[in-house]
Amino acid sequence: MSDLRVTIGLLFLLLGGILCGLGLVEPGLRAPLTEVNVNLYAGAAIVVFSGVMLWLGKRQS
Amino acid sequence: MTLSFVDYLILALYFVFVLGIGWLVKKRVSTSEDFLTSGRSVPVWITSLAFIAANLGAQEVIGMCASGAKYGIMTAHFYWLGAIPAMLFIGVFMMPFYYGSRARSVPEYLKLRFDEKTRTLNALTFAVMTIFSSGISMYALGLLFELVLGWSFSASVLLSAAIVLVYTFLGGLTSAIYNEVVQFFLIVLGFTPLSILAVAKAGGWRGMASHLAPVMTHTWRYIGNASQNPMGVDAFGMVAGLGFVLSFGYWCTDFLVVQRALAAHDMSAARRTPIIAAFPKMFMPFIVIVPGIAALALMKMNIGYTLPPKGASFDYDQTLTTLMAQFYPSGMLGLGLTALMASFMSGMAGNVTAFNTVFTYDIYQSYLRPNAPDQHYLWVARLTTIVGVALSVGSAYLASLYNNIMDLLQLVFSFVNAPLFATFLLGMFWKRCTGHAAFTGLLAGTAAAATTHGLTLAEGKGGWIVPLHEFPSTMAQNFWIAIFAWTICFIVTILVSLMTKRKPDSALRDLVYGLTDLKHEDVSWHQRPVTLAFIVGGLVIALNVIFW
User: DSSP letters of B512-525?
Assistant: First the structure.
């Protein structure tokens, strides 16, 4: 098995990508008490996190 | 709350990944030690995150959010006072003996240090307790998903249990630990946005404070008198009961967490495991407790958020899920629920992997069949994994049928656990301490706990002998039960030690302070346990001052 950081990075890249995609396709999606595009922002943050994990994992190997 | 396709997709992706990790690490398992102890080869950042994730079960997450709404930021005492000091203590002072003794489990350490009967007492109570706590947490999750999502109780219990079974069966402890790291990040990334959104909506920390009674936003200011704070606990009960007896009893002796540190690749890494884990641990209140406080503020603001009623009060256990429903749109909602599912799985896998190790080594190998070839024990360990999951599911159904039995069991286990730390403290730091004394001390401590419960009353609980004293809350009662149990165990263990024959020094090497060669570790400053412990200690003191 490759470095666990790479595995984690891939999972969150996928999850963050889905949220970002949803935020772009349906920018008007809101929960009752939110005014911002939660999916887009949270998704972007998760993609950044996955990038850090992938970078750390690759650097090691 | 209704889920859409994308929410289910996220949940399904997570399931595929956890099973995939189990399948990938399967190749590494060829002996019973690979399966049960990860062959002592896991990197320290992984053991550290697994150390807190195994404790971060669904009940913890849901319960801490509920307590945030009920008691405010005082709940953070369960982290800053009730976890961090003990995590530093085990890393700096106790790990040299656990890891250095080469014991494969906490009960095995007791066997090496004391004797067979002390080991068996600890192994049996731990094994039974682990199964029941795993069942109770499964029951709580099944109930919540039924209530919030309308999923059938059986479907969520059986599906989640089946997934945990598959990955722990395939890859053993390594698989459980690797998945705990994934689950840790999911919990953090899945719940942090909720905390940010809820706090922002409530007007930030100051905005929240302006809507709440001052006691909800201070950790220490109202603790001088038990009647002044919603927990009904005074400073001594809090510091001695939670901060010392209960906290050290759990973090320093419970095999569920200690097992993660023992999987580290060397002594230095094992010692650093709980100390590095303390860094993320001290910030967890901002993710799990603060949203609960925000929920209470939002209710006072009358903007459409409220908790469902329960009796004369509110159903605080639904704080987390109602916040999600109000703040997470489809997509993020799926990630939030996946995080909840992940927290449940990390807790359950922790229980199952600790149970199969204690059963295989401390019960099966020492009583039922010693001296068998290792492949036999590997086979037993795998089988025990299945049995452990099946028993957990069974106790979840037992809990759904007979709620009172579960309450009684939890009470009995709290009596058994309360004195434990006195035994370990004396065992590790006093070479005169004997096996007969440890055993008698534990029984006396448990009896003292039960007696205290029988003689005191709180919220209608206890007082079944003669109610001599009444506590303002069951929490205060629990803390004082622990204090009495610990003290009695400590005194009885010392007295009996002085009357019984001690083990010779040669039999205590690497097990007791003073007879263990503690090597000076030639590592850079940021890898030294003591240096790291001072940094953590400083940060925790700062947090306490900020939220004083």
Answer: STTSS--PPP---G
